């Protein structure tokens, strides 16, 4: 996890399975989210859980808004 520009957080992820969206984004390496939950940011517990993550790709960036779905497995 590292701080990105404009108060965004960048999580480095290990993609285990992708169910849809291969043509738009064949491999996801990072998830970007706002640093504040009031701006729909999400805080993930690093190295504690595996997450099921859903959302839309925007400008070749993976989802990271609170309105997307994050569920620990």
TrEMBL record:
Subcellular location: Secreted
Pfam families in the record: TIMP
Single GO MF descriptor: protease binding
Principal location listed in the UniProt entry: secreted
Keyword annotations from UniProtKB, A to Z: Secreted
Gene Ontology cellular component list: extracellular matrix; extracellular space
Protein origin, superkingdom: Eukaryota
Matches recorded under InterPro entries: TIMP (IPR001820), TIMP-like_OB-fold (IPR008993)
Gene Ontology biological-process annotations: negative regulation of membrane protein ectodomain proteolysis; response to cytokine; response to hormone
PANTHER family registered for this protein in UniProt: METALLOPROTEASE INHIBITOR (PTHR11844), METALLOPROTEINASE INHIBITOR 3 (PTHR11844:SF22)
Name of the protein in its database record: Tissue inhibitor of metalloproteinases 3
Lineage: Eukaryota, Metazoa, Chordata, Craniata, Vertebrata
């Amino acid at each position: 996890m590292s701080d990105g520009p404009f108060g965004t957080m960048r999580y480095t992820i290990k993609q285990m399975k992708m169910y849809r969206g291969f043509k738009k984004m064949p491999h996801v390496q990072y998830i970007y989210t706002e640093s504040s939950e009031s701006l729909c940011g999400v805080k993930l517990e690093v190295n504690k859980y595996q997450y099921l993550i859903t959302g839309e790709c925007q400008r070749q960036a993976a989802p990271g808004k609170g309105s997307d779905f994050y569920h620990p497995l």
